[in-house]
Amino acid sequence: MIRPATQADVSALVEMLQRFNVDWDYVGKLPIHAEHARDYFSAFIASDTWNTITAISERDGHIAGAMGMLIINSPFTAAPTLYKSFWYAKPEFPGAGRELLRFAKDVARENGVRHFFIGSMHPRVSKLLEREGFKQQEINYVMDF
Q: Domain segments of the chain: what residues?
């Protein structure tokens, strides 16, 4: 089941972010600042400035995953564009990631979105995206200071 996130979900979202860091072997690469993450998720859920959607995948009363989306008019084309801000599904809930992705695609269609940008840092996720009709457009790089 997909439902909208509420402020009551913020702590669980922070815990999922911390778990993502471990599950995807980013410990030491992407340091987590829990208080900032808490503020970020809280503001994302409550935003009345931006068109944000935070979806929770729930199974038997447990949060199985979450995806944060932002819809804005592209600075390039002026077309409505959906950007994935965060996305994580717990491995013990198979299919939750796909469920969230399909929900996001429905949100995009319902909002007249022309483009959906979503990053992937893992080959398994990239394969899912390709199966769902996404195509690789660019590769991201990062430099730490």
A: 2-131
CATH code at 2-131: 3.40.630.30
Residues near 22 by Cβ (< 8 Å), separated by ≥ 6? none
Scanning the structure block, which residue is given the tokens 């013990």?
A: 92
Q: Tens of pLDDT along the chain (145 residues)?
A: 999 999 999 999 998 888 877 666 655 666 677 888 899 999 999 987 789 999 999 999 999 999 999 999 988 889 999 999 999 999 999 999 999 999 999 999 999 999 999 987 778 888 999 999 999 887 777 666 7
pTM summary value: 0.85
